[in-house]
Amino acid sequence: MPSPQTVASGPEPHSPREPVAPQIPAQGTRRASSEDASSAHREGLGPGLGTFRRAFSKASQRASGCAPQEDPGLLRRSSRFLFRSLRHALDDGPAADQTQATTGPGVAHGREVPSRAMDGVSPQSSTGAGPAELEGEDKSVADLITERKLLAAFEQLRHLETRLVAEKASRTFEQDPTGFARRAMDVCLHYDGLAAEIGAIVLETLGPDGVDAAVLAELARVVRAEEEAHPEPPADGDFLRTPRHWRQHWEDAVRRSAQGRVQQVSAGEAPGAAEGASGLAQLLAELGRLVRRDLQKVQLEVHPAYAAAGYPAWEAYLRAFHGAVAQRLQELAHDARGCEQLYVLLDWASNVYSSPDFLGSQDLALPSEPLPPLLAPDVWARLESDYTSFLETKIASCFDGILQVEQSRWVAAEAPDVLQGHYHTPLSIDVRMLVAEHVKAAGAISAELEATTLRICARALGLFLPRFEKAFLESGAVSEPNLCANINACEEFRTHLLARFPGSLEELEKPLVAATCAFQKRLLQGLQGDVQPLFKVLCTKAWLTQDVLQPLLDKVVAFAGHLEHVVPPRAQETLQEVHRYVVREYLAQALRPRERFRGVERVSGSQKMGLDAQAIGNTFQGLGSEATWLGRAIPCVADILGETYKDDIRRHLETLIGSYPDIRRDHVLAILALRRLGRRRNQHLLTHAQDLLRAAAKAGRPGAAGGHVLFEEIEVPTSMDVLITCI
C-alpha cells in the first residue's frame, strides 16, 4: 500500500520499456475494437463497483435508524465534474487521433510518455484495470472503508487518482474516452463512500456505544490528508483533483448530529400539550441534561482524540449544539402560552443555559468568536412583550384575590394582630411579597424586564388602593384597630416598596397619601362623634362650677391608646390633629357662648379657661403631642377676657395675631364682644388689629403660618353683640 508521500510523488521510476507503437486500424476495425474494449471494461468494472456497493450497503445499514440523510451534493459534485471532464475528453479525441497518426511511436503531444505510467499495459488493457486496482492486493477500498481503515482507503484512492490522472495526461484513453469516465466514476464513488463513512462516524460518536478514539483520530488525519492532497481546484478543471471539502462535510455532520440529539428530547411534544409550565420546565431540564452530558463527553473524550491529530473539535461541537438548542428553543417559544410558560422559557435561556456553571466546568476553552444569541432579538422581544401582557392580567387578578381575602376577614370580624407593638394586617405582607416576587423574577431575566414589571406593579397597586379604601370604609368592619392597621399598611408600602425601588414607584405616592388621609380622617371622625356633645357644656354657668372637661380628656386618652399601635410618623400626625381639634372646638365654644358673663363671672370664666388650657396642654404633652404651637391660643383669649387693665388688651391682641396669622377680623370682633369695652376702645383695638393683619400679609405670612391652621376653621356667627362692637 503506498504511503501518502509515495502517492504525492507519483509513480516510482523503473527501467523504461520499449514504447509500443499504436496501430491505426480502419474505421470499421476501430469501432469493433472499441466496442470490444468497452465490453471488456464493463465486465471488469462490475466486481469493483459491486464490492463497493455491498460494503457501502453494510455501512449504511450500520448507521441506519438514526442517521440523518447524507449530503447529496457529494454525488452531484462528482457527477458534474465527471461529465464536464468527459466532454473535454470526447472533444479532444479526434485531435489525438490525428496527432498519433502523425507522430512516432511512444510520443504524445510532442513528448515521450514513460512506459511505467501505464504499468506495462496497452491502452486497451489499461481501461479495464480499474477494478483490480480498487480491490488492491489484500483488501478492496470498500472493505477498508467498511473496516474504518480510513487512512489506508484514502491512500489507495489517492494512488489510483494519481495514476488515473497520469494516464489521462498520456492520452491512454484516446481509443476509449468513456473508459476514463467509468474508472473516474469508480474512484469518485469510493471517495463519496469514504465521506459517507465520515458522517456515520460523527453520528455514532455521541451515541450510546460511542466510537473508539483511534477511529476519531484517523478521521481527523484523513480529513487533513485530503486537504493537503487537494489544496485548491486545479487550473484545468480536472474533477478528480478538485477539493472534496471534507472538513465542511464533517462540520455539517456535527451539526446534523447535534440537531438530531436535541430533537430527540420529547420529540413532537409542544409546550401546550405538556402539563403547563411544569411540563415545559421538565422538558427544558431534560434538554439541559442531554446537552450538558454530550458536551462533557466531547470535552473529555472526543476533543482529546481529535486534538491528538491536530484537529480542533470542541468549538465545532459547541457551536453545533448552540445552534441546535437555539432552533429547539425557538420552536418551543412559538407555541408557548401563558405567563408561566413564557417565564420558564426566558428564565431557562438567560439563567440556566447562559450560566457559566451550565457545563459544570469553568476551564472550558471559549470559542474564538462569541456565540450568537440563543434567541433572535425579535423573538426575545416578542417573548418579553407577551410575558408582560400576561403579567398585567395576572397581577390584576392577584390584587383581586387579595381584596377578597381582606373582605372575608372583615365579614369574620377578625381583629388585627399586634406585631412588634403595631397593629398588623396581612394586606401589607401580601402586597409586598407579590411585588417583590415578580420584580425579582423579572430582574433575573433582564434589567429592562425588571423595570417594566415595576411599572406594571405600581400601576396595579395604584388602582388597587382606591378600591380597597372604598370597600373597607363601606364595610361594617370600620373600627379603630382596623383603621390603624390599614394606616400602618400604607406606611409600610411607602417605607418598603418606595425605599426598595427608588425612582421607580413615585406614582404610588399620591394614592398612598390619599388612602392614608382617608383612614386618618375616618379615625378622627369616630373620636369627634364621641366627644362633640361634651363641648356644648363649656363656657356655661354650670361649667364655672363643674369639671366638665375631664370626661372629654378621658376619651382623648383612650383614643390615644390605639395610636400607640400606629407607626410613629402617622401616629404623631393623628395625635396632633386630635390636639388641634380639641383646641379649635374649645375656642369655637368660647367665641360663641350660650351665656354672657359679666363682672365676677367674667373673671371666673377667664380663670376657668386658663385652667382648662393648662389641663389640655398637660394631657397632650403626656401623650407625646409635638404641636406646642397650640398652647398659646386659649390662654390669650382668657387673658383678654379677664384683663382688668384695659390698655394691656392691646398687648394680648398683638400676641394672639402674631402667633396665629390665620385669625380674621371676625374673630377679633367676637373676642372684643366678650369683653364689652365700649365703642371707642373697641374701634381703636379693631383698627390696630387690622393694621397687624395687613402687616402680616405684606410680610408674606397671610393665613396659616408654617401650615398651622386654627382660627381659619372656626366659624363665628354675626350676633347683636358683635354688631354693637362694630358700631
Automatic annotation (TrEMBL):
GO cellular component: exocyst
Biased composition (Basic and acidic residues): 32-44
InterPro entries, alphabetized: EXOC3/Sec6 (IPR010326), EXOC3/Sec6_C (IPR042532)
Residues in the signal sequence: none
Keyword Phosphoprotein part of the UniProt annotation: yes
Phosphoprotein as UniProt keyword: yes
GO biological process, alphabetically ordered: exocyst localization; exocytosis
Region (Disordered) residue spans: 1-73, 91-136
Molecular functions per Gene Ontology: SNARE binding
Sorted UniProt keywords: Phosphoprotein
Domain of life: Eukaryota
Protein family: Belongs to the SEC6 family.
Name listed for the protein in its UniProt record: Exocyst complex component 3-like protein 4
Source organism of the structure: Physeter macrocephalus
Species classification: Eukaryota, Metazoa, Chordata, Craniata, Vertebrata
